[in-house]
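Example complex used in Figure S2.
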Amino acid sequence: MGYAMNAWYMAAWASEVGSGLFARRFLDIPIVLFRREDGHVVALEDRCPHRFAPLHRGRLAGGVIECAYHGLRFDVAGACVHNPAGDAIPPQAKVRAFPVHERHHIVWIWMGDADLADPASIPDLSCIPNEPGECANIGNYLHVRANYLLEIDNLMDLSHVNYLHHGTLGNDSMRGHKVKVHEEDGAIHADLWMPATTAPIYSPLFGQPCDQWTNMIWMAPSCMRLDYGAVPPGEPPVQLPEDIAVHILTPETARTTHYFYGTCGVFGPDQREFAEMIRTAQTAAFVNEDNPMIEAVDERMDGADLWSLRPAILSSDVASVRVRREIEKMIRREKAPASEEKAAAEAVVV
Amino acid sequence: MGYAMNAWYMAAWASEVGSGLFARRFLDIPIVLFRREDGHVVALEDRCPHRFAPLHRGRLAGGVIECAYHGLRFDVAGACVHNPAGDAIPPQAKVRAFPVHERHHIVWIWMGDADLADPASIPDLSCIPNEPGECANIGNYLHVRANYLLEIDNLMDLSHVNYLHHGTLGNDSMRGHKVKVHEEDGAIHADLWMPATTAPIYSPLFGQPCDQWTNMIWMAPSCMRLDYGAVPPGEPPVQLPEDIAVHILTPETARTTHYFYGTCGVFGPDQREFAEMIRTAQTAAFVNEDNPMIEAVDERMDGADLWSLRPAILSSDVASVRVRREIEKMIRREKAPASEEKAAAEAVVV
Amino acid sequence: MGYAMNAWYMAAWASEVGSGLFARRFLDIPIVLFRREDGHVVALEDRCPHRFAPLHRGRLAGGVIECAYHGLRFDVAGACVHNPAGDAIPPQAKVRAFPVHERHHIVWIWMGDADLADPASIPDLSCIPNEPGECANIGNYLHVRANYLLEIDNLMDLSHVNYLHHGTLGNDSMRGHKVKVHEEDGAIHADLWMPATTAPIYSPLFGQPCDQWTNMIWMAPSCMRLDYGAVPPGEPPVQLPEDIAVHILTPETARTTHYFYGTCGVFGPDQREFAEMIRTAQTAAFVNEDNPMIEAVDERMDGADLWSLRPAILSSDVASVRVRREIEKMIRREKAPASEEKAAAEAVVV
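Predicted assembly (1050 residues):
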């Protein structure tokens, strides 16, 4: 069904993009990323317009990429600034440049109409501290062989924690609680309040009775923030900033996804072991439990649209369905701006 | 061209299905098999109707599968018996259950219209002894990357033995004998009588002159029984029950096949070595000679229908062509029951 | 867009084809090659017309192939000469035989209309010496995962040498020289004259000032001859026969190519080390520099026609574009002989 193009997607962690040429595919389009000498990140289509060589195989000097095949050079705007054959530069000799913006240790990219690229619409991930400390648990990345919407489904319905992650992230006491969903400023909140339960392994109260919560917030197009907490039963549920995690997805292709994740605690050198423990536990759950399941679901669906398969929808699906509806609305709006209202009215209602 | 759906296919050897969840794909449909507490085998579609997780990744307790992803539970009839979200069970929350029947140490499955599933039409493999002994040579399985009809072609034309298996299962003296084909009660018999020939390696008369025979019987949709024997020249050709082999094929996908095989001798502990020798020789011939050839043919045909390639048909093809015609007739009958006669009349005649 | 069928393609080096059965795919058609007892090379379709087994798995005796599956036999003309079932030979029992011709240590094959196969149109590779010596640098082969036209583009625009092979085959001084293109007897010449430059590593003048040249000649459909030379500045540019290389491409499939190459020097036993050095340097450049780039281009183009991607064309592309136009003309001529003039007139002009 395509992608929402006019939106900010996470391209990379800021730390991934240095002075070299960094290649990654987003929304089926190959992109090369690099930093200008002033530190600003540049994103160009990773395909020379001459003979279609990947530009990331080239050389970067003075903010100019030289194609490794025949030597055409392109500036940070994608304009050809050197024709090695010595003639005038032909009009086709240019590559598309994509708006990028660096914020919250993240490089954001805009794959759609550049005129609409307003940094104000970058998802609010100010939960990531400006100075996360030298042992921070951000910068994590997984490559997933599944459509990105299946990852969003996974994250927006945390009831799966108590089955798929039973014994690791979840336990029996956490089952059966009702999610409350609401929208706020375009973000969709899925709040799960689990009073009088047993704290799971990642909580300092592990094994003890507690009131706990997982509040997941989706921000268009595919960013999620998870506010977690556990307090002794009856105490006020104060949200600690360090108990916030981020899960950010960017489609690579229709059936592969970039998955970026991390937690928002500030960790100094003395907390290296603790930060590493969290990273390891989180990654183990994703790699051993979530990813095999999500990839198996993608294989079972075999590229079919979710609705065409007529899924049984449960009340625990409310948030993920609303997110899918929002994304479908974004895509429809881009495809036929004028007839948006009509298309929305005709959309299949769950 | 599709499959005959209203037929009993071999799903597994009885010994393959135990108290755990056993996944296998038949006719392009993923299935999970397991035994109820009373020992009966159950076959369900291996895809949760909620978010399409493979059910075989789940947990089985008290004859109920719990999906590993979000905890929906299904009974042996495929009905959802637990909605973890705590609400009423939505009507889509059910999985298809498939008729299964256990007979002759084999689990049979019916992939078509359940109302038509009559165990009386299970292929007669009573040649497999009820008590095959603890060293029996049944239970063998190979996965083949080829359409199942190519395996049937292979088995219904045993003239290939004297070329493809020359020096192993066949020899020069066995060439050029005419197959006699007849139909009996819907089964197609391909009888090859080879008088005054030299016995091949798997016969107790190996290297000696003999009268020998290989009589292959096809039973719909894809079971074959091979009656073999060799006697000193001129002696009556008595069929020994232990010289019978079974070859059973089930399509996995259009271009992959489950191949089950074995022999019908009863082997006690003292015959372990002999039974193992037969198994090894048989498997070696299939793995080293038949499978590479059949897979190479499948690759050369590249998914094309046999007839569309206009094969040169020899008299040795009579049996395999008749079997293909029978299977085509079954498929036509299912697709357009009323116009069967007409369709048959229009079918390409070889 | 298909292939030019009525043309001589290189099937193999003469040394590759012996008394055994040699399988290779050309223009999407599987072929089996072998030598008759009189030494002549035979090319047959590598697919038995009976049950589509690859014939190269069979046995060759007395110039007759016996199919390994059911024993049909075919002579060098592709006629079935033995029906193992003992009946008349059915009319479909024949395989296509392809004209082949051995010349210049090369086996040439004609994949199109056999009536048009005139050895006079075999590309002139008389530059390959009749007696290249026992250490000759011919007989080299690479398998490339890219459309063959991308290899031709690569070879007909040697400006890439100074970028892709910078530091190995090329250097800065060799950049920016204008190629001169002309046609002669149907061959397209791309002459690059580089006066007052520095000799590259493969020249005896390595590192010294020189006048040098690379003159590439394309002969239909996909043979190239490279005349190279370097002389001290101002001296007459005498072409040494040993400084000639051949690059010959044959499509295997739409996206894979057989790449044959070599040089034309005569090397005796005392020059084994030198010949081996040239072979190693050449192969290293192709394997480490050209092939990864050409395969990456093929992947970026993903099967699209070059023109549909609207490439930026530089003056250095003149020769490769002319060659592509010639090949397109050959294909059009074969598809619609009568309307050739019209089609040519309508062709997209670069």
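The interface with chain B takes residues 153, 157, 159-160, 162-164, 175-176, 178, 292-293, 296-297, 300-301, 309-317 of chain A (CB under 8 Å). The two ends of chain A are 18 Å apart (CA to CA).
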